[in-house]
Amino acid sequence: MGLLPPGAVGRRGLDMTARVGALELPNPVMTASGTAGHGAELGAYFDLSGLGAVVVKSLSAEPWEGNPPPRLVPAAAGMLNSVGLHNPGIDAWAREHLPALAKAGARVVVSVWARSPAGYEEVGRRVVAVASDRRAGTVVAVEANISCPNLEDRGRMFAHSPDAAATAIGALARGLQGSDLPLWAKLSPNVADLVEVAGAVLGAGAEGLTLVNTLMGMSVDPLTGTPTLGAGGGGLSGPALHPVAVRAVYECRQAFPSAAIVGVGGVMTGYDAAEFLAAGADAVQVGTATFAEPRAPRRVLDELERWCTGQGLASVRELGKRGPGL
Ligand SMILES: Cc1cc2nc3c(=O)[nH]c(=O)nc-3n(C[C@H](O)[C@H](O)[C@H](O)COP(=O)(O)O)c2cc1C
Fold first, then answer.
1. Cis (ω within 30 of 0) for the bond into 264?
2. DSSP line for 167-194
3. pTM of the predicted model, to two decimals?
4. What are the residue boundaries of the structural domains of the chain, listed by start?
5. How far is the CA of 232 from the centre of ligand 1 (A)?
6. What is the full DSSP assignment across 66-125?
7. Ligand 1 test: best mutation among 73, 80, 237, 276, most atoms within 8 Å of CB?
8. How confident is the model at residue 324 (pLDDT cuts 50, 70, 90)?
9. Residue 13 pLDDT
10. Of all residues in the chain, what percent carry a pLDDT higher than 90?
11. Helices and strands counted in the chain (H then E)
């Protein structure tokens, strides 16, 4: 198998390598944006170089405060959050957090967001500058979080309209020109026709789809009648989201057999990850599970490997041959 990075050959000799479009990863398990800190925080619990990739919290061109507390509340089978895209801005992040990720040997997927098409182009240019400096090689892909308000469209989320989603992705693709970083568009499940939005972003320059972001939700204190989250509404994640995300992956794989697809939503076990891969995902991300158990992404990877071995597979990619991609 040649010189493969840590994590590429499972302890049981199984080939764990994953291909997400043009990108080859040692295995198909990543962290999910916003659930693993800005940098190498999870490195205190396991070796980050052993994961397929680390997806960092979404970054904007300028620092952003985010929403008032409380930002997280429990929900049945998951949780609600309204963090509000709090981040230090991409330049400060590159100075303060990227070096620790590079030192840990992590492959980094940079998640970005903006509040206008011009903002996506600008943050794209800054990603290129960051990725091409002395730490080149650490940044392996860009994930576009388009579940954010478009100031040029009365604050409606880019991801909720095929045209706005395509405009954001087109602008980001322009900003990324001159780099060969793959671009994945992370879509929202809060739409009537997800496949239509997926087609629009793939047509606008995205190589891949990350499916899905959180479902819009809210909880209210019955004693006061007020929402429990500081911002009012929030996003539902965790096991409750999993079947929604599996359906998104399955339908997009049927519609776009050659697109890169990353499944995210309620992966708590290796079995959940195997389900995503068999539904058509090339890789998976682990988010909410990490809050109760920081080692969850590593455990999911170990369980996935054990499950595949139990199935008699020689490669984890064989799971994809079971699903709708064929
Ligand atoms: C506290 C929290 C913060 C999040 N922040 C981001 C973010 O900054 N960017 C993003 O694209 N998704 C963000 N997400 C969404 C997750 O990346 C993921 O799509 C979603 O939670 C579903 O996966 P899970 O059920 O495994 O958590 C966040 C989720 C949570 C729970």
1. no
2. HHHHHHHHHTTTS---EEEEEPS-SS-H
3. 0.95
4. 18-322
5. 17
6. -PPSP-EEEETTEEEE-----B--HHHHHHHTHHHHHHTT--EEEEE--SSHHHHHHHHH
7. 237
8. confident
9. 83
10. 87
11. 9, 16
Residue with tokens 């089978």: 77
Superfamily for the 18-322 domain: Aldolase class I (3.20.20.70)
Asked if the peptide bond before residue 70 counts as cis, ω within 30 degrees of 0, the response is yes
267 CA: nearest ligand 1 atom: 26
Q: What residues flank ligand 1, with Cβ below 6 Å?
A: 32-35, 57-58, 72, 81, 83, 85, 111, 145, 186, 213-214, 237-238, 241, 264-267, 286-288
**How many C-beta atoms surround the C-beta of residue 123 within 10 A?**
26
**Are the beta carbons of 48 and 101 closer than 8 angstroms?**
yes
Residue positions annotated with a catalytic role = 148
CA distance 142 to 231: 28
104-143 tens-digit pLDDT:
999 999 999 999 999 999 999 999 999 987 555 699 999 9
List the structure tokens of 66: 């985010």
Q: Taking the CB of residue 173, how many other CB atoms lie within 10 A of it? A: 21
**Alpha carbon 129 to chain centroid distance?**
22
Residue with tokens 């994930």: 143
Q: Which of 98, 80, 81 is nearest to 89 (CA)?
A: 98
The mean pLDDT value for 34-45 works out to 94
